[in-house]
Each structure stands twice: as C-alpha cells, then as structure tokens.
Amino acid sequence: MNKKGIMTTMLASAMLAGALSACSGGNANSNNQGTPETSGGNAAEPVEISIMLQAAEPLPDNYFMIDELEERLGVKLDIQTYLPDDYTSKINTGLASDSATDIFFLSDRNMFNKLAKQGVLFDFDPYMDQLQPTVDFVGEDNLVKGQAAGKQYGIPQTARAYQYSLWARQDWLDALELAAPTDLEQFQEVLGAFRNDDPDGNGKKDTYGYSGRPNEALGPLFGAFGTTYPGYFYVKDGALVNSLYDPAMKDALAYIKGLFDADLIDPEMLGNTKLQHKDKAFQGQIGMLYFNWPNIAREDKIQEYKTVNPDAEWVQLDLPQGPGGQYAYYDDLGAATVAAFPKSVEKDPAKVEKLIELLNYVSSPEGSQLVMYGLEDVHYEIKDGEIVPVSDEAAVQEAAFTYLFQFTGRDEMVYLKSKFPNQEAAYTFANEMPLLPVYNSFVDNPEGYNAADASRYMEEELYKFLYGKRSLDEYDDFLNTLETTFGYKAYMDAAEQQLTELGILE
Amino acid sequence: MVKSSLTEDRVFNTITVVLLAIVGITAVFPLLFVLSMSVTPYAEVLKNGGFIVIPRSVTLEGYRQVLSDDHIPRAFLVTVFITVVGTAINLLLSFLMAYPLSKKTLPGRSLLLMMVLFTMLFSGGMIPTYLIVKATGILNSVWALIVPSAISAFNLLIMKSFVENLPEELFESARVDGAKEWRILFQLVVPLSVPVMLTVGLFYAVQHWNTLLSAIMYVNDRSLYPLQVVLREILVGAESLDLVEAGAKIPSETFKMAAVIISTLPMIIVYPFIQKYFRKGAMLGSVKG
C-alpha cells in the first residue's frame, strides 16, 4: 500500500519534471526555428552565444531584441540576467568551472585586474583590427580602461552621463523667502532655515536640511574645498595628491562637521543605502537632496511627490562655491564597464568571429539604433529627422529593456533626448556638473594591500570625525594607523610609481 | 490565604496574558504591515509618512500586477514542484538512511554517524560544490535544486533518534509473526513515524519553498527560477543598481508587498494544519525513551 503510494508519487514527479522541461524546451525551439529561415544563406547551425548581464529586473519573455539580433547576425543567443549582488559570484564560479558565458561585463577594476592576472580573460590584442568599428564607437582614448598589464582584456563601454545634482524644495525656499545658496555660508544658512524655521508651516520641528546616500551626498561639500571623499588621487598644481593628504581635507571635514553639529543633516543618512532618502524627501522631511534625476524628474516620480503635497516643487541647484571651487563629485577616469570574453573561447575561432561581429554590430549605426530604441514604427518613429517614442504605452514599456543590449554603450545624449524628451533640462543640468578627475582605477593594488579593509577603515573614521566621535585633532593619528596597520603607505608608493609609468604624472 | 493566592493567580495570569499579547502583536504586526502596504496605493503610503497599518483606501492593483506578471506565476509552479517532489525525495532518502542508522547492531554505525555529522559542520565551499553539481550533469535543471540537498544531516538525525525510540519489542513480535524486514519497515515503522515524517517534512518543505542561493548558482534558465529568486529581484532589483538606468521600470511598493504576500501565503496556510503533528513530532523524538 505504502510502497505503491511512494511509487505513484515518484512517477507523478517524474512526469511533472518531464512536463516542466518540455515546457522550457518548447520555448527554446520556437526561438530557434525563426533563425535559420530568416538568416537565409547563413551556415546551417547558428553559432550559440551566451551573454551574462547585470539587470535590475528580468527581461520579458521572448524579448523581441533577442529574436532581432539572432536574425540579423545568424546566431543563437542565450541571455542570462542577474542582480549585481549575484553577478560577481556567477562570473567567478563560471570562470572556475570553465562554464562562463561567452560575454560578460566587469565594472570593478580590482576584479578585472585580478582576472587578467589569473589569465582567464580573452586577449583582444590580435583581433583589434577586426574590432575597428567598435573601437571607433567607444573611442580610441577609452581603450586604456580595458587594459591590464598592457594587454587589451576588455572592451570598455562608452561613458554614461552623470545623473546626480543638488535638488531643493523651491516652495520651501519661497516660503522662507530665501534665495538659492551660492556659497558655503549661504548653504549652511539655507539648511539651517529648512531645519529650524518650519518651512512646511506645520508648527513642528520635523524637517531636516540635507540628505542623500552617505557615499554621494558629501561630494558637493568636499568639492567646494577642491577635494573629494578620502582616498582618491587627483592632480593639483601639477602634483599627485591623495585627498586624504590634501590640506583642504581637514577644512572640508571641519565644515561638514559643523553641519552635523548643528543637526542640519538627516540623522539617518548613514542608513540611506537604497531609496530611503528619496522617500523621506518626498514625504516632506528633507529640504535638500543630492540625488539622480531619474528618481526625481521622471513623470511618475513627479506625480509621486505631488500626490503627497501638491505644492511641492523640486528644482536643481547650482553647487555652492567654496575656497577650492565647485565640484559635484569625482570622476574616476580609468573606470568603465568593460565587455570581456573568457579565455576558453579562443579554442573556437568561429565563435570568436561571431562575438566580434556582435560587438561591431551593436556599435554600428544600424545596430546601435536598434539597441537604443528598438524597431522603427514599432517602438519609435522618426519625426522631422528626430527619433521620438511611439504613443503606444505598451511598446514604450517594451523598449525600456533595450539598454541591456547596449554592450558597447550608447550615444548618451542623443539617447536620453529621444527617450526622455520632457526631462532634457534635468539631465543636461546633471551632466554638466563639474567633476574632479581622479585616477584610482589606474592603480593596481600592490601585493598585501587589502583595499576593502582600508576603505572600510577610512569610511568608519570619516564618520567618526563628522559625528564628533573622534576629534579632528587626531587626524594625523588616523593617517598613521592607515599607513602602518592597513599598508596605505605601500599603496601610495605603488600609485605614484604606476601613474608616473602611465604618463599621467610627469 | 485562599483569597490572596487567587489574586496572585490573577496577577500572574494578567502579566502572562499581557506579555504573550505583546509577543503575539510583534509577530503579527509585520505581517499586517505588509498586507496593508500591499492594498494601499503608494501615493497614499507616502502621504502617511511611509507607514500604514490600517489601510484607508484599498486597491488590488498590486495583486493584479503580480498575477499578470510574466515571471511570478511560472516561478510559483516551479516552487510548488520542487517543494512537493523535493520533500518526497527528502523524506524517502532520509528515512531510508535514518532507519538502519537507528539500529545499534548496524556494523560501522558510529563511523557512518561520524560521516553524517561531519557534513553538518564542514562543507566544500561554493565553487567545489558547483563543480560537483556541474559534473553530475544536472546543472540548469530543477534537479539541481533538489538533489544536492536531498538529505539534510540535521533532519536525518532527528528522524534517527525518533526511530531509535520506538520500542524494540514491537519489531521482535513482528518478526515472531513472520514479517520480513521490508514489511516491518513499510507496515510498522513508517506508520508509527508519521509525526516525525510530518515534522521533518515541514522543515524540508519550508527549506524548498525558500530556495534561493542554489537557484542563483545552479540555474541559468529563467523559466526554471523559483519564487524567491524572482521575489528578490522585485524587492531589491531596482534599488541595487548604482547608477539607476534611466529607462528602468521601478516596481511600486504596492506591487512588491503584494508579491511578498502571494509568495508567503501558501506556507502560512499550511502551517496550522501541520502544527499539531509538529509539536508531537518534536517532543516524541526528544523525550520518549
């Protein structure tokens, strides 16, 4: 009796499993069928290409772009998307077990260097001639971002536009009869008024001046002193400076500490890892925010804060001018997302050829148009020579995923203009934010230097200084510990030497 | 005297009730919060400072989105499959190992038990385990979510100690009556072990229902993703990208919370039905003897 029961269960489960796998198999087949027919004269078996992407959300089923690329290039695509958190471990296990996808993307320079040293990345050097269309697209100057130890192990994507800027509640400024701050003194005054003068008129002291994510929000304040977050290399008056050792760092810390002391900054700022600060700001608790335009200027976001308070009006502000100028943040000149292949594809020249063809295609005018906007008259139309989205909301939604296929990047400003015609002012403003050029990504960590430990220590101590848990008088002690215990001295020496070798320093 | 002990009782009872009520509320509150969030329009949530306990205006939009989503209904089926089939395999294999190990006369028993215990304390690590799964050829299939975790050492030991405590005389009398080993197993031991089966089965089922990491590691085919993977993508996806992709759709809080409810509901429903066995099973395994 029981035996029979168990057998039945097992049988049923086997059948169910069969049904499930048949289901997915069926999908793959239907994708497959379209390819040979339409690609006509191409070789019988399309080359299979697997690609691993970092995506915030999964692709819709049977996404049109996959069919389109398969058809146009005579390949069979296997697209896998993962959240950024899982992406790194997927690459590591994939490369370790020789089952990595044919294309994957690396945006962490340390990891790129490490994999290059391990010899698991494909060397593009012998193929650079064939990749000329891609090189033209991403720019010859950019190639250095995909090099390690003098070899081209990755193809960098074109740079994305900077999205962050200062945002403030215009209606609060109006209510308090304040002008937008232009220098650090006024900046502090405005924050003070937001905190103390009841800008929302509810009779309660329940508002804060400023918020953002801890690793971004202080950028404009460091920037006003001509420096940036601790631990970044830049050139000042012709000499290499690390922000930690810049005399301006202490002044900046003293100023920012003043804001914390006066209780003007969101007390939970250190906990803002995702969108908490935006939510608080939309709920009317924050007067000024350092954040990116898609989260504030898109129509759906405007609607979100207007529902809470119809009078709310968020506007972008110029950066406060300080003794060191105006910088919103830093721009790591060597950092880029690079496309890489596993070394193992070398064994399959036909595949390498197709992979290169794919990169060249999405870099070509035709292919780039496809991966930026989708299909003409389905997802976009051309009106007066300009590309505009179609009026069909479902089609626009579908085209929202095309960004995943921009393997070599895109012509950012043209792209934004056609996708977000109503936000042009916002993204142009953010993109024009002055950024302090830094060189950290060009520095390969010396042996024995643990970057993660050192930066954690730096971050912890930074906030201890700002929250007054550690006196700024101890700043030199802090540097001393960093140099000795965390091996920062070796890192500084390595940076100096490497940046000189690269010709960044004379 | 009598009176004062009555008041003492009453005071004690009141304190107990209050304490338990607090514990109960802290357990129910998050659930209620998620439930309320899932039926309240997001703009309404923001208006109330991001915190809603009793919804004032109700929308089922979140649920409509979840059910018409491309990925959630299919992920739900995958999860049901690995939970049902996985638990059946778990119970079969665990019991087939627990029963012999419960026999003190088994040759090499202590060595086998040592080996079982060893796996509870040490594991091969992510990449070696991945290599084994790959070499087994079940990568990228539902079996990769079932087979590597077919026996949990902890659950095996619970079963073993339960079976150990069944009275030996029963088996002897069965043998006297001429029953063979298989018959003793299936007609005597298995029916007597229903409480532990259900208890351990629940452990296994919850574990399968919550399958997350193994799916991320071993499955590339999106159509085989279980619920938790899809759910996590919905909950943290849009927020985990550093530079928010200008075109990316950010799921609304209402949608997220509706997805949480949909994926938690089945386990919440199953719990009360198994609970009575659950208590019995856990108790029997530990105390009797």
UniProtKB/TrEMBL annotation, chain A:
PROSITE patterns: PROKAR_LIPOPROTEIN. Keywords: Cell membrane, Lipoprotein, Membrane, Palmitate, Signal. Residues 1-28 form the signal peptide. Gene3D superfamilies: Periplasmic binding protein-like II. This is Extracellular solute-binding protein. It comes from Paenibacillus sabuli.
Automatic annotation (TrEMBL), chain B:
PROSITE patterns: ABC_TM1 (PS50928). Keywords: Cell membrane, Membrane, Transmembrane, Transmembrane helix, Transport. CDD domains: TM_PBP2. GO terms for biological process: transmembrane transport. Belongs to the binding-protein-dependent transport system permease family. PANTHER family: ABC TRANSPORTER PERMEASE PROTEIN MG189-RELATED-RELATED (PTHR43744), POLYGALACTURONAN_RHAMNOGALACTURONAN TRANSPORT SYSTEM PERMEASE PROTEIN YTCP (PTHR43744:SF9). This is Carbohydrate ABC transporter permease.
